[in-house]
Amino acid sequence: MKFAFVAIVGRPSVGKSTLLNKMCGEKVAIVSKVPQTTRNAIRGIVNKELKDLRGQLVFIDTPGRHSSEKKINKKLIEVSNRALTECDLVLYVLDATRSPGSEEEEISALLAPLAEKVVVAVNKIDVSNSLDPFVSVTSFSKNNIFPVSAQTGEGMDELLLALLSLAPEGEALYGEDYYTDQDVGFRIAEIIREQAINRLRQELPHSLYVDIADIELKEKDNLLWVRAFIIVERESQKGMVVGKGGEMIKAIRLSALKELKLIFDWKIDLDLRVKTGKDWRSKDHVLKRIVG
Ligand SMILES: Nc1nc2c(ncn2[C@@H]2O[C@H](COP(=O)(O)OP(=O)(O)OP(=O)(O)O)[C@@H](O)[C@H]2O)c(=O)[nH]1
Ligand SMILES: [Mg+2]
User: Fold this and answer.
1) Are strands 209-218 and 89-95 parallel, antiparallel or unpaired?
2) Number of folded domains that form the chain
3) Residue 14 CA: which ligand 1 atom is closest?
4) CA of 124 relative to ligand 1 center, distance in Å
5) Is a pLDDT exceeding 80 seen at residue 137?
6) Does a structural domain hold residue 174?
7) Do 18 and 140 fall within a single domain?
8) Does ligand 1 lie within 6 Å of residue 121's CB atom?
9) Ligand 1 geometric centre to CA of 84 (Å)
10) Rounded Cα–Cα distance for residues 251 and 98 (Å)
11) Where in the sequence is the domain holding 230, given as residue range(s)?
């Protein structure tokens, strides 16, 4: 039996969270076109038997690495760094549709000392399948670079087999029926954030977070009652999230409910509102609570 913690690292938007969801076969992490969607170390658990190898891989999805002096970016990089120090293996994800620039060279250099425990996935080969630029930018051997598509699932078994082969012997940490360790409130907040990000433009996706103010399970009705707030940085942004005649917040609420229905068996009653948390992205006490 094999067991490993595997940190998934890479630039923003390369498809780390999509890949995690594909490997888990469940929606564990939210996904969007907007860079820096993931803000937390999110665990996804995969039990797998391939060839003569059987094991449990506990993946840790991380925020995309992007150097910037902004307080929130520094926090996000810290989450990625912590996962790198705590893991047994690293899954380094690159994007086949974007030429590797200086940021990629930086990440490659950071991972070079860990080379023995790194497996490289070049993702989005459903769009572009030329691996050559990546072989030259990374110092990793070609045998350890796997072309994959998190969208179609191509290359998944080869990638998982490579990870299982490198994983140390060990016992499973989670029972067979677990695929994540996130609590219900966090998952609901993330789904609401995903639906908001996917509808809003410009700075707004980066300017918001979701706070679950109240949550109550009414067991006899099989009903989960939730009150949540979308929190924006400035008073002037509230109107854009609410939309004309409340259309935007209504659309976010309905699509979040639709997604939540796929995940949970309860009926969900969602009271969703918007409020301002002035300049929250530069406040340590807020970042401490929501990034990590
Ligand atoms: N065509 C294609 N698109 C993909 C694939 N994997 C991910 N995407 C898209 O790439 C975008 C970013 O995906 P995410 O999974 O959120 O990327 P991420 O690396 O987790 O991004 P951060 O959390 O911001 O670091 C989304 O629009 C995905 O639908 C793939 O294999 N093929
Ligand atoms: Mg992500």
Assistant:
1) unpaired
2) 2
3) 19
4) 8
5) no
6) no
7) yes
8) no
9) 21
10) 32
11) 184-290
One-character DSSP codes across 84-130: HHH-SEEEEEEETTS---HHHHHHHHHHGGGGGGEEEEEE-TTT---
105 and 199 together in one domain: no
Does the CA dihedral 248-250-254-259 come out positive or negative? positive
User: If you take atom 13 of ligand 1, which residue's CA is the nearest one?
Assistant: 15
- Say if residue 101's pLDDT is above 90: no
> Do 101 and 74 belong to one domain?
yes
Q: For the whole model, what pTM was predicted?
A: 0.97
Please give the distance, rounded to the nearest whole angstrom, from the Cα atom of residue 223 to the centre of ligand 1. Answer: 33
**Are 138 and 190 in a shared domain?**
no
Tokens of residue 45, six digits = 């658990």
pLDDT confidence band for 85 (50 / 70 / 90)? very high
Beta bridge partners of 162: none
- 261 falls within a domain: yes
Which of 8, 17, 18, 156 is the pocket-test mutation for ligand 1 (most atoms within 8 Å of CB)?
18
Mean pLDDT across the chain: 95
- Residue 123 near ligand 1, beta carbon < 6 Å: yes
Provide the pLDDT confidence category of residue 135 given band limits of 50, 70 and 90.
confident
Same domain, residue pair 189 and 263: yes
The C-alpha atoms of residue 159 and residue 153 are separated, in whole angstroms, by: 11
CATH of the domain at 58: 3.40.50.300
Give me the CATH number covering residue 275: 3.30.300.20
Tell whether ligand 1 has an atom less than 6 A from the beta carbon of residue 26. no
- Does one domain contain both 39 and 120? yes
pLDDT at 188: 98
Q: 114 and 24 in one domain?
A: yes
